[in-house]
Each structure stands twice: as C-alpha cells, then as structure tokens.
Amino acid sequence: QSTWGTFVHLGDLLVSKTWSLDSVREAVRALLPAPPPATLACIRLREMLSEKAGSILLGTDVALESALMPAYRGRDRLDLVVEVLAEPEPLQPGQLLLSAFEWTPAECLGRRLQIIVSRDATKAELAAVIGAAAAADAASPCEPVEVAKVYFTTQMETEAAVETLNWTSDPSKPITKSPWYIRDGDLVLFRSEA
After folding, report:
1. CB neighbour burial string for 137-160, b if at least 16 within 10 angstroms, e if fewer
2. 34/52 Cα distance (integer angstroms)
3. Label partner for 157 (CA 20 to 30 A): which of 5, 66, 148, 173?
C-alpha cells in the first residue's frame, strides 16, 4: 500500500452478515499468500472507501454487519482491505489509526509514522502524540509540532499546496468534529512549530 493505497485483489468471498469478524478473518486467511499469519489477530480488516482504506473493523465475536458503518450495513456487496500485521492488532475500541508524514521544505515528505490516538482527542492532543512518536522515532527530545489534515495527495506535492492546509484550526476542537472530521486511515502532516 502506498500513501493512500494500491491494492491487490485477493478474491471474492461469500459470507453472511451475521458471521463474526474472526469467521471472516478465517475465510480471508485462506486467500492470503503463504505463509499465512500465525493468528487471526494479525489480520486487520478495513472498509474500502473509494480507493482508500477506511475504518478498521475491531473485535472478534462482533458480527460483520454490526462492525460496519451504518451506510454499509444494508449492502449486498462490500469491499474490504486486508492488512497482515507482524504483531496482533494493537488498536482498541475508541481509538483511531492515522498515518502522519513529516513535512520539511527541504525534503518535502520525510518520515511516515503510524499513530494511534483516542477518537476523543483534540487537535492539541493529536499534536502531542505525534510529537512524542516523532521524538521516539528519532531518539531525540520531544518538540512541539503543528498538524494539518490532508484531504488529497496533491496537497502534499508542493510547499505552496502544503501552506493551504488548515494548520491554524482551534487546538481545543476534537479531531473527529468540524473542521477535520478525522477517521481511521486519514492522513495528517506534521512539522516543527519552530
């Protein structure tokens, strides 16, 4: 998968909406190239939104239909993104998984970090989580960072495009509300406040 996704079609499965997520994972495991993941907990299922990996379907005994966003529950066909993880799924209910890219004018896109943050986090809390993760990744002291949500990959191509992003939104606002409406799989940029 690239920044937002190039996917390989694994095949088609006929499943019941009442199947548990682990039953779906078991069926998917049979489609995966060898060697298969050691445990079902290493198979991440996500909704496919247009050409992007969307919400992560969490749980083991949860019925597939209950895990889906309400807009997808009545559909007869559903595209899923399957990610094979090296370790069991770290995400817990109430958390979001985001991709955060570092922006520097000299390098454009730098490091990519996978960030787990509470769905209730504010923009300031997201910036603190990203700052701590960036510091740990670089083995350096934590520095304050600014964050902005990316809606289209073209917004990351030039410094002028990056400057049009909403870097100055209210830091006390929840990230899942206006103006960002962040969801699983969304992409954010971060840069040093200095």
Report:
1. eeeeeeeebbbbbbeeeebbeeee
2. 25
3. 173
